[in-house]
Design brief:
single chain, mainly beta, 8-stranded antiparallel β-barrel, 1 helix, 50% strand, globular
Length: 135
């Protein structure tokens, strides 16, 4: 199985990107790919991620509200749709780098065994991630 290449297309009022999240931290599911679509007009970005968590292929879409949209960056408001964690995404339009930070926001109940170490992610080329997984 191969993961898609990294693509980044910035049309001014619309930004489209595809890739695989990569991290120096061991991720639970490295076999995944994401498509990000940002629309200035709607002040929102939609991230759709396909993965094979627990051996089941699934797709999840999350909407991020835009906090700031400039010629150099797109900053997104934190997404707290997951019950234990929140994600903050940032798009550097100059260097064409998309990053995301996952932090734990709850550690009781179903979240009591969550690792509280922040996870720093960067949207990367799928082949590079695939090589890392299959070393």
């Amino acid at each position: 199985m191969y993961l898609p290449s990294l693509t980044y297309n910035d049309y001014g009022d619309v930004l489209l990107a595809d890739g695989t999240w990569n991290s120096d931290t061991q991720m639970v599911n490295q076999l995944q790919t994401s498509k990000i679509k940002c629309y200035k007009k709607f002040t929102a970005c939609v991230e759709s991620t396909a993965d094979t968590a627990l051996g089941v292929l699934s797709v999840e879409s999350v909407v991020y509200d835009v906090e700031k949209w400039t010629e150099s960056e797109i900053s997104l408001k934190p997404n707290e749709t997951a019950s234990c964690t929140k994600y903050v995404m940032h798009i550097d339009r100059i260097s064409k780098i998309i990053t995301k930070i996952r932090t734990t926001i709850k550690t009781d109940g179903l979240c009591e065994n969550m690792d509280t170490t922040p996870i720093y992610l960067q949207l990367d080329d799928g082949f590079k991630v695939w090589q890392k997984i299959n070393k």
